[in-house]
Automatic annotation (TrEMBL):
EC number: 5.4.2.2
Function: Catalyzes the reversible isomerization of alpha-D-glucose 1-phosphate to alpha-D-glucose 6-phosphate. The mechanism proceeds via the intermediate compound alpha-D-glucose 1,6-bisphosphate. This enzyme participates in both the breakdown and synthesis of glucose.
Identification of the protein by name: phosphoglucomutase (alpha-D-glucose-1,6-bisphosphate-dependent)
Annotated signal sequence range: 1-18
Any Pfam family the entry gives: PGM_PMM_III
NCBIfam families found in the cross-reference section: PRK07564.1-1 (NF005737)
Subunit structure: Monomer.
One GO MF term: magnesium ion binding
Cofactor: Mg(2+)
PROSITE patterns on file: PGM_PMM
Class of the enzyme per the UniProt entry, highest EC level: isomerase
GO BP term (any one): glucose metabolic process
Species name: Oryza barthii
């Protein structure tokens, strides 16, 4: 069928409540197809169909918040459409007209419907091509990889990150730029402003796209290509890591590995990477490997509280040698050895210390290192690798954190350290690698306390109380056995674009390097999450075996006392301890 030009037709309606969605969020939808080889793909089919462009006009309502929220809010008429149109109104036309955008998400409820809405509005705004992951699936790092490989203008990520999914849970969306990086706050603020002023939504009257079949379909000058969500990302991983080295480790009869996908997006990647490419046993190696719209009624946050099945496996009798998990959209990770937990702060530091020897991508050494402010200073003691205490790790291979990258990095380290071990010899373990690192650089005892779903007003009052304490504080003041070096409300100015972000954490830093940090996190829809970060450096190797909760107890008690957390929130204990 010949292609037909898009025609413009204004459609007026008197309506209403169209609130946009948040940029600081993320989600997806769908279940992967039956297992088959990813490398002998059927030829893409091409179909040309006519299309009618409709310009819908309405008076939008204000946006309430910009973070992931209840999916029922996003399902309101024109709520998501308002945000998508506001995004296009915020970008220069040359950044998208006739260009290519990537679309995918973490497999959660509403992603498939959202993908159709986004595709039609993209067509209505003159986008030339959409690359969408099969069944709407693309992990956050894979979106970044596809943008960079295909030289796309940007991409949409449908995800609420590690928050629960399903009809009664969260949904969200964000936009990444042409280098694969998340849009800066200056753009998200502009999008929000535009949601309050747009008078029309430009949408193409085209059929829904079959997201289950690989191939190409054209509507006039607009094209949709359904792509395999794994191939571009897998190719990148093969260029970063020595897959033959890792395969040698996984093929050893004396080494066992288990990966928990938490019924989230990395389930679509675990089979082709760990099983088909690296030779892992799919029965023994993959837990919760099928992406589900509600994540199996679970909370896809890879920590000791929510990754219960993996933790039970790794701390039980006959535990595997290495365990790992990833979150809802695939940008976070948790690393475990046999009855041994690696903190995210230690994980990124250990990867940095071993990268040059174990990972081909870093054979000339890392170009640089970076961490988020609350992340422990373990990485600083070493100074292209970055990480954060909230289980995010990555490098400059893409412009996002990358959960599977971190798992492959640890497998590379173990494979390198054990490459000359003969059958029957004791293997170097995850715990061995961590303890050797502490012996060399010292140990940064680190813990994070999460108090989830706190009443927002009480949580904010606690933070204002702490700001008042900081305003009155002076260097040299005694806090129990600790002497204050400084206290502040952390802000950051980007040296590249000059943008500034403020209120990023209330810090109490002491003269011995110990730190207490308080932050409010709003990545979920139910109340507020108070996070307390506690860190203390210990150079004495005889104390490295201490449990972190014991080593940090004086600082933890001080944090609870200074913040008056129980008085403000009524909470006796945290929801999650990292």
């Amino acid at each position: 069928m010949a292609s037909h030009a898009l025609r413009l037709h204004p459609l007026l309606f008197s309506a209403a409540a169209a609130r946009p969605a948040p940029l600081a969020a993320r989600p997806g939808g769908g279940v992967p197809p039956p297992r088959r080889s990813r490398y002998d793909l059927p030829p893409a089919h091409a179909l040309a169909l006519p299309a009618l462009l409709i310009s819908s006009r309405f008076r939008p309502s204000p946006l309430r918040g910009r973070r992931p929220g209840p999916v029922k809010v996003f399902q309101q008429e024109n709520y998501l459409a308002n945000w998508i149109q506001a995004l296009f109104n915020s970008l220069p036309p040359e950044d998208y007209v006739g260009g290519t955008l990537v679309l995918g998400g973490d497999g959660r409820y509403f992603n498939k419907d959202a993908a159709q809405i986004i595709t039609k509005i993209a067509a209505g705004n003159g986008v030339g091509k959409i690359l969408v992951g099969r069944n709407g699936l693309l992990s956050t790092p894979a979106v970044s990889a596809v943008i960079r490989k295909r030289q796309a203008n940007g991409g949409f990520i449908m995800s609420a990150s590690h928050n629960p999914g399903g009809p009664d849970n969260d949904w969200g969306i964000k936009f990444n730029y042409s280098s694969g990086q998340p849009a800066p706050e200056t753009i998200t603020d502009q999008i929000y402003g535009n949601t309050l002023s747009i008078s029309e939504i430009k949408t193409a009257d085209i059929p829904d796209v079959d997201l289950s079949s690989l191939g190409v379909v054209s509507y006039g000058d607009f094209t949709v290509e359904v792509i395999d969500p794994v191939l571009d990302y897998l190719e990148l991983m093969e260029n970063v890591f020595d897959f033959q080295l890792i395969k040698g480790l996984l093929s050893r009869p004396d080494f066992r590995f288990v990966f928990d996908a938490m019924h989230a997006v990395t389930g679509a990647y675990a089979d082709p990477i760990f099983v088909e490419k690296l030779g892992a046993d799919p029965v023994d190696y993959i837990l919760n490997g099928v992406p589900l719209e509600d994540f199996g009624n679970g909370h896809p946050d890879p920590n000791l509280t929510y990754a219960k099945e993996l933790v039970f496996t790794m701390f039980g009798s006959g535990a595997p040698d290495f365990g790992a998990a990833s979150d809802g959209d695939g940008d976070r990770n948790m690393i475990l050895g046999r009855r041994f937990f690696v903190t995210p702060s230690d994980s990124v530091a250990i990867i940095a210390a071993n990268a040059q020897a174990a990972i081909p991508y870093f054979q000339s050494g890392p170009k640089g290192l970076a961490r988020s402010m609350p992340t422990s200073g373990a990485l600083d003691r070493k100074l292209s690798i970055c990480g954060e205490e909230s289980f995010g790790t990555g490098s400059d291979h893409i412009r996002e954190k990358d959960g599977i990258w971190a798992v492959l990095a640890w497998l590379s380290i173990l494979a390198h350290r054990n490459k000359d071990k003969k059958a029957g010899e004791r293997l170097v373990s995850v715990e061995d690698v961590a303890r050797e690192h502490w012996a060399t650089y010292g140990r940064n005892f680190f813990s994070r306390y999460d108090y989830e779903e706190c009443e927002s007003e009480s949580a904010n009052k606690m933070m204002e109380h702490l700001r008042d304490v900081i305003a009155k504080s002076k260097p040299g003041e005694k806090y129990g056995n600790y002497t204050l070096q400084f206290a502040d409300d952390f802000s950051y100015t980007d040296p590249v674009d000059g943008s500034t972000v403020s209120k990023q954490g209330l810090r109490f830093v002491f003269t011995d390097g110990s730190r207490i940090i308080f932050r409010l996190s709003g990545t979920g829809s139910a109340g507020a999450t108070i996070r307390i970060y506690i860190e203390q450096f210990e150079s004495d190797a005889s104390k490295h075996d201490l449990d972190a909760q014991i080593a940090l107890k004086p600082l933890i008690d001080l944090a609870l006392s200074v913040s008056k957390l129980k008085d403000f929130t009524g909470r006796d204990k945290p929801t999650v301890i990292t």
